[in-house]
Fold Glycoside hydrolase family 1 protein.
Amino acid sequence: MRTRFNEGFLWGGAIAANQCEGAYNEDGKGLSIQDIMPNGIVGPISDGPVEENLKLVGIDFYHRYKEDIRLFAEMGFKTLRFSIAWSRIFPKGDEETPNELGLKFYDNVIDECLKYGIEPLVTLSHYETPLHLAKTYDGWRNRKLIKFFENYCRVVFERYKGKVKYWLTFNEINSVIHFPLMGAGILTPKAELTKQDVYQAAHHELVASALAVKIAHEIMPDAKVGCMVLGVVNYPMTPHPDDMIASMERDQDLMFFTDIHVRGKYPRYTKKLFKELGVNIQMEPEDEEILKNTVDFISFSYYMSKCTAKDLSKYEKGRGNLTSGVKNPYLEESEWGWQIDPQGLRYICNYFYNRYEKPLFIVENGLGAIDELVEVDGEKTVLDDYRIKYLNDHLVELGKAIEDGVEIMGYTSWGCIDLVSASTAELKKRYGFIYVDRQNDGSGTLNRYKKKSFNWYKEVIRTNGGSLVD
């Protein structure tokens, strides 16, 4: 490979509490919105926890975190991205006093990471709004959640200061526009929500995110706090100016969130957008000042690109991660129809960096696939060369982005151990370097097995990207 990654590059993996921990009702934990979403974003929601919801057990990380972190350390992880379940700390979300057993669990997870020299990268809210807040306040539609989130942030910042340096506020914060329940804990059906409702909820989250940055810097002056967005490249389907403008407008849907996080104010183009949508953001006098608390870095997920056009009906629709567009005839697809585009990662890194000149952190990237457990030399494994190729090709393009001059802090592969899918709530869609013996029907031993990609990624980390094949 032409370029080695910078010294101190944070190689690692990413998981989320609701997709791996299980133990949904242990040690004082309250319910979250995930406990009533047994089918993921495809719905419908349930009245309460149901046996079919694989997230109730997850992969039992709650009881097996030591084993899993030891495996991550064996791969050489420099960082582990995980989330704190808000409802473990505040079971309802609006209490004054936190749940000590919940805090203790994350004490243990963080200490286990630090034992191996793994930097914790903690997401404060990863699609895990406490269910009580959804039922009582309709989630982030209600401004009161800002105060509840502030209280939660203060508690965890005080508890883990000196141990956790890197923080993310809201996972894929721009997803609220597309999936209000998962993104903002809004129980009112999407079809009944106005654009005003959705963008007002987004505003509340943006204010809360900026407030979290402010509080973190007060309590932990050395801390680095980033935003996290769902990163999608929007190629125009044709060079027709109409399609170019359509692509520009889709980019603005994403950049509106990063612009506010990085520049500390609403960009001018939102005036036109909100006028067209009939949106009038209700701001309190202090909001503009709070938004000036800008992030230290930008993090994002990247799985795929999409094409867009003025007239989408003329083209075949593509499938994708929370958002979809027009199918690109030049790209291959995953088993779930997500179009595979390694060069898109280089493109979006350059796009972000040229726009903001802020450090970037790729905190989700990976291939969901159906893996087959086989026996090789007496050991159970998965021969996942398809995953190795996907990750290798994306990391090569990430190296090229560094050559282009982009400042990249690190890379955490999504679902570094198999977990329950967020979008479909199934286990057969696997991302990990580690196979977990649990199936879609809930059966399995929960035993862990190293896939072929385990040793491949271990070598990538050991050589700081030198083993990648261009």
